[in-house]
Amino acid sequence: MAGDAGIAADELKRCCAAAYQLDIVSALLGESYHPGGLDLTRHLASVVGLKPGKRVAEIASGPGTTAMALAEEFGVRVTGLELGAGSATRAAEAARARGLSERVSFVVADAEAVPLADGSVDALFCECAFCTFPDKARGAREMARVLVPGGRVGIADVVIEAGALPPELSGAAAWIACLGGALPASGYEAILGTAGLRLVAVETHSRALAAMISATFGSESSGGGAGAR
Q1: Could you tell me if residue 45 is inside a domain?
Q2: Rg (CA), the chain
Q3: Nearest 5°: CA angle at 131, between 139 and 213?
Q4: What is the pLDDT of residues 188-211, one digit of tens each?
Q5: Tens digits of per-residue pLDDT, 143-161?
Q6: Distance of alpha carbon 114 from alpha carbon 109, whole angstroms
Q7: In a domain, 2, yes or no
Q8: What is the pTM of this model?
Q9: From 14, 31, 132, 164, which residue has the greatest number of CB atoms within 10 Å?
């Protein structure tokens, strides 16, 4: 499968994984790599209804910030799935340093081929990453497959209405910036619904995205039709 700009799916995945392992990304985006930071993560966990002892998978776990916070603050066991081997290794080291190795683990994995058994997790998190999947339908099916009956998925992502981006914002850079593959809210809902995931709640957090853009690029930057949900 190819991305919107004719970029091969494997190339897109490699580019995104490599980019998010760079030190400059951490310096620009902070520890969470997504709008709203841990505050939005905590809110999402509350909406999902996390309870102590639950089994959680995090897709595209990056530096492990979300996985470790969920384990510490909600008493859950978390498996972080991350395509970048360097990111997974550093996340595991950070979890070990915080005494969380018994409750948090990280696996090098493709979100479109999750190495977990059917019905093996109670909840699944994916923050500012689903939009980068070249094959979102396959990724959604994998989410549904690993959930227990009645399990919940918490997704925080960039939403872009059709035609909102100028033509020059294309190619791998746009995908890495969570723009190239972003969809309207209805697009995400359709893909998730086809995979058997029923929409329970949708919230808009555009201010979190605007704040991240401002902090990263300066106050003169604008969202240009993009929002976070």
Answers
A1: yes
A2: 16
A3: 155
A4: 999 999 999 998 888 876 665 545
A5: 999 999 999 999 998 887 6
A6: 6
A7: no
A8: 0.74
A9: 132
Mean of the pLDDT values across residues 128-145? 92
Q: How far apart are CA 47 and CA 112, in angstroms?
A: 25
- Tell me how far apart the alpha carbons of residues 221 and 50 are, in angstroms, rounded to a whole number: 35
For residue 18, give its domain range. Answer: 9-156+169-202
pLDDT (tens digit per residue) in 87-127 = 999 999 999 999 999 999 999 999 999 999 999 999 999 99
| Residue-level length of the chain | 229
List the one residue out of 112, 113, 115, 60 whose CA is nearest residue 91: 60
164 domain-assigned: no
Q: Say which amino acid occupies 53.
A: G
Nearest to 129 by CA among 211, 185, 183, 61: 61
Report the C-alpha gap between 54 and 77 in whole angstroms: 6
